[in-house]
Design brief:
Pfam families: ADH_N (PF08240). By secondary structure, this protein is largely without helices or strands. 0% of the residues lie in helices and 11% in strands.
Length: 37
């Protein structure tokens, strides 16, 4: 394939802000979203 390319389907991050209805995470939490098509 051609570069640049994104390998894999997972990522990590730190929650910076949340919406009014969000209850399962809080600001500062480390999260690991996993995209599965």
């Amino acid at each position: 394939g051609a570069f640049p390319v994104i390998l894999g389907h997972e990522a990590t991050g730190i929650v910076e802000s949340i919406g009014a209805g969000v209850t399962r995470v809080k600001v500062g939490d480390v999260v690991i979203p996993c995209y599965t098509p």
